[in-house]
Design brief:
Mean pLDDT: 81
Structural class: alpha+beta
Number of domains: 2
Distance between the termini: 65 Å
Radius of gyration: 19 Å
Strand order of the largest sheet: 1-2-3-4
Helix content: 25-40%
Strand content: 15-25%
Low-confidence stretches: 1-27
Length: about 190
């Protein structure tokens, strides 16, 4: 009896605290986010046609003066309070090409990626989404790989970025996360600074 009870307690503890169950809330996301209620341009969620006024646009907080308002928005949520999860999110198709341009242009400058390249030495290296990093030496899930870059002599080759079309901006682990340097370049790209 005690063994069964201990097993249930351990199982519940593991489900609660294992890394597979950690979800980022807006307060733990590493970059400022803004939720804009009742956006002018908004898609419709199939089951929410009648409640269109409760939609919210999602954008990075640092991108307050975008050069292209349509490209600024990451996407839309069912409501201002909705968790950033696939079932609550519609991606802005104009936003993701901006992210890929930043990766193409600046991946070779990123200090985190440079350190990984020095370790790997040669070949193609995956650029992992920071929301769900894999254990050391493992390949992450396809939905968490932003793309890959070519490494020669411990150096990332400029403009070698190849996008991974299986990557998802939002998964059950939350919103995508770029390394700090690439995120700052994305904000610069959005704002035109």
């Amino acid at each position: 009896m005690q063994r069964v009870l201990a097993s249930k307690i351990f199982s519940a503890y593991y489900r609660t605290f294992s890394t597979g169950n950690i979800r980022l809330s807006p307060s733990t996301y590493p970059y400022p986010l803004v939720r804009i209620p009742n956006p002018q341009q908004a898609p419709s969620f199939p089951e929410q046609e009648a409640q269109r006024s409760s939609l919210a646009a999602l954008a990075f907080g640092a991108a307050s003066n975008p050069k292209d308002p349509a490209g600024e928005l990451i996407g839309w949520l069912k409501s201002v309070d909705a968790q950033i999860m696939p079932q609550n999110f519609i991606e802005n198709r104009n936003f993701w090409p901006l992210v890929q341009q930043v990766l193409e242009k600046h991946a070779h400058e990123d200090p985190e990626l440079q350190a990984q390249a020095a370790f790997q030495k040669t070949g193609w290296m995956n650029i992992m989404d920071g929301r769900n990093p894999p254990p050391l030496g493992r390949t992450g899930a396809a939905e968490d790989i932003l793309g890959c870059v070519l490494i020669e002599d411990k150096m990332i080759q400029p403009k070698s970025f190849q996008a991974n079309w299986a990557h998802r901006p939002v998964t059950r682990d939350g919103l995508f996360q770029l390394p700090k340097h690439l995120h700052s370049k994305l904000i610069e790209n959005i704002t035109g600074n």
